[in-house]
Amino acid sequence: MARLIPFLARTKGSADGKPIGVTDVLAYGYLVLGMLIILVPILWTFATSLKPERQIDNFDTRLLPLSQIEREIPGEGVRPIYRTRDAEGRNVEVFKTGPTRAMTEVAPVDDPAAMFEVPRRDLRPAEEIRIATENYLDPLLKRNGQDTFNFPTYLFNSVFVTVMATLITLLINAMAAFALSKYRFRGRLTFTILIVATLLIPSSIILVSLFFVVWSFGIFGSLWGVIIPAAATPTGVFLLRQYMLTIPDELLEAARMDAASEWRIFWRIVLPLSLPALSVLAILSVIWRWNDFLWPLIVLISDPAKHTLQIGLTTFSGEFDSDFNYILAMTIVSLLPVTLVFVWLQRFITTGIATTGLK
Amino acid sequence: MTATPALQLGDIRKSFGEVTVIHGVDLEIAEGEFVVFVGPSGCGKSTLLRLIAGLDDPTSGDILIQGRRVNAVSESERGLAMVFQSYALYPHMTVRQNLSFGLENMRMPRADITARVDGAAELLQIGMLLDRRPGQLSGGQRQRVAIGRAIVREPVIFLFDEPLSNLDAELRLQMRVEISNLHDQLGNTMIYVTHDQVEAMTMADRIVVLRGGRIEQVGRPLDIYNTPANRFVAGFIGAPQMNFLAGTLADGALTLECGLTRPMHAEGHQGPVTLGIRPESIDVDLDGKGDLTVKVRNYEQLGAITYIYCAFPNDETLTVQLSRQIPLRRGQEIGVTFKAADFHLFGGDDEHALTITEMT
Q1: Which residues of B touch A (CB under 8 A)?
Q2: Which residues of B touch A356 (CB under 8 A)?
Q3: What are the phi and psi torsion angles at A55 (to 5°)?
Q4: In this model, does residue A166 exceed pLDDT 50?
Q5: Same domain, yes or no, for B109 and B223?
Q6: What's the rounded Cα separation, in Å, for the pair A66 and A80?
């Protein structure tokens, strides 16, 4: 923390001794703007996920999780409490004794018999800050009838799909990139361009044909049906190829003189030296696979035991009614693992770059 | 009966597409020889080394290592080791891992690997660096590690591709001596590529001078120095460069454009020739006595050696190397005397060396 503040407060520094220059202001302005664009939706989701269901359903846009106080009134049961002024202008807590009209009948909480009338507009709900932990605990602990959201299963499925797909993606893409960057063969550039060109085809266009392919391979409805079609990504091949082009050919030649097989060169020389690019691709792949919704929905919809977290979130959204409090809370929960992976991999990127200083 | 040569090249040719870079090279290298390929940039010396190593395939011709044709043998099975110009150390491995990588690939037992690596480390005095990574080493240390990686393989032939070109002058001198010592200690065949003729002269048992993908001359360093086969070799080997003076050979006399005339016969050759004379074969006289007088343009006094850069009245230049100190100033006129015994004569379209048969 002691090192974090000087780091965050760095300026460009200038010869004339002015602590903050125009470029500093612009740079920090740009960075703050970028940070807000990224953080505001997440923070809003988090803040909203702490609100009680009623506040969310009322489209109450205040940030704090406020809920109306309810009290047990003798002889009346539990009633919502309002604040208003009585005839003498004192602040009193009241509850409604009749239906809400322009002039509503209310009674003070301390003295339920002393009814009086106030204009409806003068009634303010008595609110308290209450973090709605039930948004999180109900689905996770299967309380209050929320027994459809099977968090451990969904988490396992999501992690399994993400980890396996990322590993396969890294392996396949690295192999393709190795061949495209380090071997000379006819059509090398053509293949590269063809692979990159597939980026131009939106995935929804090939959805139906992909469905038939997955169906005919017999992996429809299984997690592998989600993992395998997404394993080879043009972005990954291109990213790794461009990086591997920077590995000097002399290193590979030295390894060949050292009697290393091509397989060993790939594992012992090329892969370790591509670690920074592999980390980037790993992060991208984790994000893609974790957030993937449409394709897993198509493949896995029929079997709830195979649902991933992202499909699981749809259980809260029904045809007529959506439990946004649960959706938002579980969205936050589903964000946590991928965030942790990010933090962990980021360390790898920096060390990766540091150790690749080839001369 | 002669021993099988370590390496035989038979009419090696190499083309990259339309461009031919090696035009038929024949060469035999004996077991234990230190051979240096030398030539200007683009002469094909590195290409030739890569063909021997197996990193490239020749377009035609035969490569025989210890009598076995290896054209179709992969680089790893030729039993060679190469030291690259950029060292090509694996940056993500420690020095020990760099050295043992090749041995691991050959599935050598752990204990043997350790013994060989320690042996090589001791020989090259890099024992204390074994746990470091290449990025943490100085240029000279990287060079040693690169050589060490070749040594542990115990190769039939060592290949060096301009290994000293990335070092500073002082270190280069030191490593030159060390590589020569290493050759004495190990006794392996070594092929060394360089564009620096000083390295070639100081290290080689035999020098192969290359130009434009052809061998210009093969021979021991002093033989090449003393009897260059043509003007190119004469100019390339030796520093400072040999002086070349244009002239004509006719009717038993050599007439140089700078004014000198000498009676001379050379294999009956007539017509334009070039006289070559090394800077150290010229003596000077401060009083202007001698074969010719020249004007001093510049000079370098190094103490033991004095270089004088002079010009003839017709603007041809002459470099003189004296092994003594003399008082000089620019613009001074001095007399020069040529040692006739050290004349080299080049003539013909290819400017080959002519044998001076008679000088009266």
Answers
A1: 53, 55, 74-77, 80-82, 84-92, 101-102, 105-106, 133-135, 149, 153
A2: 91-92
A3: -65, -35
A4: yes
A5: yes
A6: 13
Q: Cα separations (Å) of A252 from A9, A262, A341?
A: 44, 9, 32
Secondary structure letter of residue A302 according to DSSP: T
Ramachandran category for residue A67: left, alpha or beta (phi over 0 → left; psi -120 to 50 → alpha): beta
Whole domain around residue B317: which residue ranges?
240-358
Looking at residue A181, its pLDDT comes to 93
Position A328 in a domain: yes
| Beta sheet of B253-256, edge-to-edge order | B261-263, B253-256, B243-250, B271-277, B344-347, B352-354
Structural domain includes residue B2: no
Residues B142 and B215 in one domain: yes
Same domain, A163 and A205: yes
Q: Does residue A145 or residue B9 have the better pLDDT? A: B9
Q: What is the mean pLDDT of residues A144-154?
A: 81
Cβ atoms B81, A257 nearer than 8 A: yes
Q: What's the pLDDT score for residue A17?
A: 60
* pLDDT greater than 90 at residue B268: no
Q: 0.95 cut: is pTM over it?
A: no
| Interface membership of A197 toward B (CB under 8 Å) | no
Domain assignment of residue A80, given as a range: 67-129
Does a cis peptide bond (omega within 30 degrees of 0) precede residue A125? no
Structure-block tokens of residue B69: 């044709």
Burial (CB count within 10 angstroms: exposed 0-12, middle 13-18, buried 19+), residue B215:
buried
* CB B124 within 8 Å of CB B148: yes
